[in-house]
Design brief:
- The protein has one helix at 50-54, and strands at 2-8, 12-16, 19-23, 29-32, 37-44, 47-48.
- By secondary structure, it is mainly beta.
- Strands 4-3-2-6 form a four-stranded mixed β-sheet.
- The two termini are 14 Å apart.
């Protein structure tokens, strides 16, 4: 299992199909698999959608 740190002043965290997607302002997309994650720390001005909060 891993720890994920998201430190950003811009971005959006969304949830789709059991995964989290971190979409940055410049268009970069990172995929996070919650079932492989022990710890998720979010710092800064990151928007989180309802689906992102519900992702398991």
């Amino acid at each position: 299992m891993s720890s994920i740190y998201i430190i950003s002043d811009h971005g959006k965290l969304t949830g789709t199909n059991g995964t989290l997607k971190m979409v940055q302002e410049n268009g970069d997309v990172r995929t996070i698999f919650p079932h492989n994650t022990d710890f998720l720390l979010i710092s800064g001005n990151v928007s989180i959608t309802g689906a992102g909060l519900k992702a398991q």
